[in-house]
Amino acid sequence: MDKNIVKIGFVLLSNSQAAIPSTRIVVLNMLPYLRAADFDPHIVFEPAASSMTPDVSGLAVRLKAENFQVVFFQKVFGDSVLTLARELRKLGIKTVFSICDFINPAMCEATDMTIVVTDHLKSLYPKELQAKVTVVHDGIEKPMLHKTEWGGHAGSRQEPIKAVLVTSTELDKIPLLVSPPEWLRITIVGSYSADDNKLRRLRDHQWRLRNIGPLGQKLDYMRFLANPRIRCHAWGPESVYAEMQQADIGIIPIEPDTVRDPTGAWKLKSENRLTLKMAMALPVVATPIPSYEPVIDHGKNGFLARTPSEWLKYLSALRDPQLRQHVGQLARQRALAGYSMDLQAQRLITALQNLIGYHSTTS
User: Fold this and answer.
1) What is the DSSP code string of 203-229?
2) What is the mean pLDDT of residues 88-102?
3) How much is the average pLDDT of 217-230?
4) Is 230 helix (H, G, I), strand (E, B) or coil?
5) How many C-beta neighbours within 10 Å does residue 108 have?
6) What pLDDT does residue 350 have?
7) pLDDT tier at 338 (50, 70, 90 boundaries)?
8) How many other CB atoms are there within 10 angstroms of residue 206's CB atom?
9) Whole-angstrom Cα distance, residue 26 to residue 31?
């Protein structure tokens, strides 16, 4: 192989044939960019089913024999991965650990570089490890898709404003809003059974109802299911964009107790859920968390709402179709300017080049 080509191997969290979003965004979308920048990327390990703690024993010998110069761990860790990282270091192979929603100082210590998705995540690592941590945001996957029409109505019982909430979970309530006002309809796109599998959906509801504790919570869940202004749709790589295209606004409400908890997982989340909607030119109302606050210029390209009264205030303001269009257009400009796939790919390439002291002969 040409001495100017850098051979890089990827150890994946999920199988490339059924890749979960983080594998797709962090690795698979980046491969064409890496090839264009004189890297030779290969997937050297992928599990049959997603696993954050895979068994990768014995991989070091093969990677050395096949002349890999860099090995990239995508959100995998645990004893086996730590052992492999240390073995690769002894063999002179550079290692990179990529993580999106929590910190792992042990992997940071064992590898040559850690990539995180937000400045907030980087700030949480011990000071002595800060120099090893680089920020590469999640890149927007389908920037060509966006709204061009925001509706000309102000919302009513007959023609409600349509809000979309995209989540990786199966919500059983809407944080902060509980029951939407009559002029608002909310579609949750999440980890639900397929929309056309009504029997499976019914069984899921029955199982969840049995496992909810106090009677009051059971009644709340039943009211949630029966609310005509709330719809739950199954997430899909295409359907999620269709739902956003049909929506008037985007929302990301988070329970206050979750936000106040200093160890809460939401504090570590990337801005992907936000920039996904903003790139679609949706005006967004979101609960402020560390990754959202640098993106939203409150009152201009979106709104940050903490209390139920603030949520109602900003949602009510977005009943104005002209405001929806204005905020949505500014939101898209902000998302594309700071979180495009091209920009994040260049961040990744620069970080990798700096790691190995490499400079392309074509640059």
Assistant:
1) HHHHHHHHH--SHHHHHHHHHHHH-TT
2) 95
3) 79
4) strand
5) 21
6) 97
7) very high
8) 10
9) 9
Contacts of 24 (CB under 8 A, 6+ apart): 141
Asked if pLDDT for residue 35 goes beyond 50, the answer is: yes
Using CA atoms, how far apart are residues 64 and 73, in angstroms rounded to an integer?
A: 16
Q: Is the pLDDT of residue 67 over 90?
A: yes
pTM of this structure: 0.88
Q: Which of 145, 143, 188, 182 is nearest to 163 (CA)?
A: 188
CA dihedral 30, 339, 320, 151 (to 10 degrees): -20
Give the number of residues written for the chain.
363
Q: Under a CB-based contact definition with an 8 Å cutoff, are residues 324 and 318 in contact?
A: yes
The percent of the chain in helix, strand and coil, each rounded to the nearest 5, is 40, 15, 40
Distance of alpha carbon 300 from the chain centroid: 23
Instruction: Give dist(CA 320, CA 161) in Å, integer.
Output: 10
pLDDT digit string, tens, across residues 37-66: 999 999 999 999 999 999 999 999 999 999
Buried b (16+ CB within 10 A) or exposed e, 32-51: ebbeebbbbbebbbbbeebe
- Whether 295 contacts 117, CB under 8 Å: no
Q: Which two tokens stand for residue 246?
A: 């049909």
Rounded-to-integer distance, Cα 311 and Cα 176, Å: 8
Mean pLDDT (the chain, rounded)? 90
Range 168-197 average pLDDT: 84
Alpha-carbon distances, residue 342 vs 75, 115, 240, 314 (angstroms): 22, 17, 22, 33
Q: What is the mean pLDDT of residues 317-344?
A: 97
Amino acid at 33: Y
Residue where the block lists tokens 């993580």: 99
263 phi/psi in degrees, rounded to 5? -100, 5
